[in-house]
């Protein structure tokens, strides 16, 4: 997706030349010839980068003053200054005032393109870092080899390239946001922003400002909203069920005509965004209860995508545990330790109502709390109290004993029995389908079931 670059220069030939070079490179451009039209163009829609001449003949404000206006309202908007030959001091002062870099006239095409690419990259990196901080540093790939995880990945591959809106459902912590990020990364919009709005954590009175941005009484841009920030990219509406009713109507309007007005503003801002949304709640029930607009539901969920909870893919737990161990160990420096079969059996048998997020948090605690001899195996008795406190949820030996207190071989058997029993139930007693799913020969499964007293 093309970036939206604003070129501000009073000299028409330079302005058009820069815009022409960038257009040829596949960037989207707009131009402005003076300070007022530049500020108006930024107000019309936040560009991804501004190329700004320091000397703006015949303008109300010079380039440095325009830079100040930009940095005051939108410090993250990158600005590249064009300075005349021998004006290094002014250029340096522009950088001190927040410009990303400067380019001296006359310049070579390659240099211009190089600076523009670097500025855009730096800006997207900045966004990613900010994002990472909010997400407490754990962006990852979609891990798992279960058929559920494989299906999810292949559906994502299929739908990523389209522009369709997707409503992602699934229990809390299952990986909905991760799936949305993958869709964005695999889409033609990958180089443009991925902006997250979490309706569950923003108070209703702030929601519209966060989504649409704010203008003051004189029409100056005071805050850039998520819709504008996501221009060219993807907007992820997390937990849409929690959107206030009034905001739902406004979002519906944006979906219909791809434009909106900022809070306090009157003019329309045109945007090109793809909306992905998610919910862990039952939206149909919300609709029946009059809490969610049916028309919005249909527009958001052009393509539905279900992300299954961990209970539906327990086979993935060992892979996920191993992956998180390595991820956490390399980020924190805590040495990796192998995890014993008994501890893994406990982790694999637990219900994990908070799904992958809860599993990850517990792996982290496990690694931290069970710090000991490097290379020594983490056994079930080393599981931290937080995991130990889940004991009531663990299967018992039948005699009321918890899995933690039985020998490993028995624990494995109990786990195996529970697992196979659940799979048989899932396939309505069909042995062939169960065998295929669990990856065993039909006859071997038969023997196993017999030995476990299940047939
Ligand atoms: N398949 C997976 N592989 C690796 N990490 C995963 C996987 N699924 C989820 N995670 C990780 O688990 C955590 C929770 O995932 P995510 O935030 O995507 O869940 P969610 O369904 O959007 O949660 P919520 O409903 O609370 O918004 C994140 O740290 C994410 O990176």
From TrEMBL:
Alphabetical list of Gene3D superfamilies matching this protein: 1.10.8.60, 3.40.50.2300, Homeodomain-like, P-loop containing nucleotide triphosphate hydrolases
Pfam families according to UniProt: AAA_lid_14, HTH_8, Response_reg, Sigma54_activat
Taxonomic classification: Bacteria, Pseudomonadati, Pseudomonadota, Alphaproteobacteria, Hyphomicrobiales
The protein, known as: Two component, sigma54 specific, transcriptional regulator, Fis family
Keyword Transport attached: no
UniProt key word Kinase: no
Example GO molecular function: ATP binding
UniProt xrefs under PANTHER family: TRANSCRIPTIONAL REGULATOR (NTRC FAMILY), TRANSCRIPTIONAL REGULATORY PROTEIN
4-aspartylphosphate: modified positions: 53
SMART domains linked: AAA, REC
SUPFAM superfamilies: CheY-like, Homeodomain-like, P-loop containing nucleoside triphosphate hydrolases
Domain Sigma-54 factor interaction residues, every copy: 142-368
Domain of life: Bacteria
GO terms, biological process: phosphorelay signal transduction system; regulation of DNA-templated transcription
All residue ranges annotated as the Response regulatory domain in the record: 4-120
Keywords linked to the UniProt accession: Activator, ATP-binding, DNA-binding, Nucleotide-binding, Phosphoprotein, Transcription, Transcription regulation, Two-component regulatory system
């Amino acid at each position: 997706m093309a970036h939206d670059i604003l070129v501000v220069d009073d000299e028409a030939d330079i302005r058009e030349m820069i815009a022409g070079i960038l257009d040829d490179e596949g960037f989207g451009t707009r131009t402005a010839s003076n300070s007022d039209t530049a500020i108006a163009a930024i107000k019309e829609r936040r560009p991804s980068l501004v190329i700004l001449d320091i000397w703006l003949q015949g303008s109300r404000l010079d380039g440095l003053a325009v830079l100040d206006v930009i940095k005051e309202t939108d410090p993250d908007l990158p600005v590249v200054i064009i300075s005349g030959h021998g004006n290094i001091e002014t250029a340096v002062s522009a950088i001190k005032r927040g410009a990303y870099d400067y380019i001296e006239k006359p310049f070579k095409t390659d240099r211009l393109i190089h600076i523009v690419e670097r500025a855009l990259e730096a800006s997207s990196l900045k966004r990613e870092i900010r994002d990472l901080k909010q997400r407490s540093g754990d962006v990852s790939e979609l891990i798992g080899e279960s058929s559920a995880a494989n299906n999810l990945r292949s559906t994502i591959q299929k739908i990523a390239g389209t522009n369709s809106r997707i409503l992602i459902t699934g229990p809390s912590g299952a990986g909905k946001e991760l799936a949305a990020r993958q869709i964005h990364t695999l889409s033609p919009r990958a180089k443009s922003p991925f902006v997250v709005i979490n309706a569950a954590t923003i108070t209703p009175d702030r929601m519209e400002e966060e989504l649409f941005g704010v203008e003051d009484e004189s029409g100056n841009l005071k805050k850039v909203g998520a819709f504008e920030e996501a221009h060219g990219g993807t907007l992820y509406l997390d937990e849409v069920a929690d959107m206030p009713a009034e905001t739902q109507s406004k979002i519906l309007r944006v979906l219909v005509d791809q434009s909106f007005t900022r809070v306090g503003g009157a003019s329309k801002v045109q945007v090109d965004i793809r909306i992905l949304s998610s919910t862990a709640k039952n939206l149909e029930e919300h609709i029946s209860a009059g809490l969610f607009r049916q028309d919005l539901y249909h527009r958001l969920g052009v393509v539905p995508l279900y992300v299954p909870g961990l209970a539906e893919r327990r086979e993935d737990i060992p892979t996920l545990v191993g992956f998180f161990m390595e991820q956490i160990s390399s980020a924190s420096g805590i040495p990796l330790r192998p995890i014993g079969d008994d501890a893994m059996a406990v982790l694999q048998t637990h219900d994990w109502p908070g799904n992958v997020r809860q599993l990850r948090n517990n792996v982290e605690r496990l690694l931290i709390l069970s710090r000991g001899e490097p290379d020594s195996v983490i056994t079930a008795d080393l599981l931290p109290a937080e995991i130990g406190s889940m004991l009531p949820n663990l299967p018992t030996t039948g005699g009321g004993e918890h899995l933690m207190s039985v020998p490993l071989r028995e624990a494995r058997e109990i786990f195996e029995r529970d697992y196979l029993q659940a799979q048989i139930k899932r396939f309505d007693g069909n042995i062939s389908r169960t065998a295929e799913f669990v990856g065993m020969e039909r006859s071997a499964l038969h023997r196993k079931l017999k030995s476990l007293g299940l047939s």
